[in-house]
Every structure is written in C-alpha cells, then in structure tokens.
Amino acid sequence: MSFEHQLAEHRPYLIKFARLQLRNETWAEDAVSETLLAALSRPQAFQQQSQLKTWLVGILKHKVVDQMRQRAREVVLDTGDDEGDELEALSFTADGHFAQTPLDWGNPEQQLQSRQFIEVLETCTERLPAAMGRVFLMREWLELSCEEICLELKLSPNHLYVQLHRARLRLRECLEIHWFGMPRRVTP
Fold first, then answer.
1. Taking Cα atoms as reference points, which of 145, 150, 171, 172 lies closest to residue 160?
2. Residue 115 or residue 78, greater confidence
C-alpha cells in the first residue's frame, strides 16, 4: 500500500481529533490538510519508530495549536463565572467530600483498549461546554502546560483550574452514566 493511501486511511480519525479541539469544521479541515501536506512533503521523517497514526497525531497537535493561535480573535470564550455550577453542587457535600461514592471503574488501562470506550469518551468530551472542553483538550490531549493555556486564552491560573476541575467532573458523570453504570456488549 502506498504512503499516500496510508495517509488517506487515517484522515477521518485526524478530522475527528481536530474537530474535538477546534470545534470548527473548517479549521479542523485546515489543520488536517496541513498535517497531511507536512507528512507528504517529508515522508522520510516517518522512521517507523511508532505507528503512522501516532506520528500523524503528533504533527496534528502542532497544527491545531497553530490554528488556535491564528484564530484566537475569532473564538469567543464564555469566561463568565458560573459559581452555581449544578454538577459541582450535586457532586460534593459542604465539607468537600463526594456526595455519593464514585462507582468502581475497574481497570482503566484495560478500558482504554476498548474502541467502544474511546467512542463514549469522545462523545462525552464533545458534550462539554465549548470553553470548558477547549481548556480540557488543550491540557489533556495537546499536553500544553497550564502557563501556555493561560497565556493563549488570557485566563487566570485560578480560572483555568476551576474550568479543568469542572470538565473532569462532567466527564466523570458522563462516563459513569454512559459507560461504567450501564451493561455493555463486549467486542472482540
């Protein structure tokens, strides 16, 4: 199979990855196109020390960050302070303990091997409010430092940590409802 054909096979996954972060179809297409062009222009850079998909995602991460920087003026973030966050109020008691003991998540490493789990996780991530989802993906998927995110989005460190905390709570709730709390079919 030719290198070009292999790249084309990974395009749908790359689009999905870029769309999750950028939340804009056109920007995601641009980032993926730039990624594929970069890979095509230097195929010798892929030294097969990792999977092709992993190498492409590494390039895409940089392209997504570039897109975010280029489009910073076009993105509107909801920076309003929503102290009355319902999820947080339902999740914790006044003394900071869990209101309800979290469900047993079993072996998370084994769960990550499941394609179904990844699909549920991506759906839960897509359901996060735009600003919250963006900071979560920048931190956890793009692996940007908190300082870089604060600088890029003009957030205070405290506001960033609050957004990350709330995103993790919402993801936990979504995963407990749609994955850990429901019986699933096992796929080979």
1. 150
2. 115
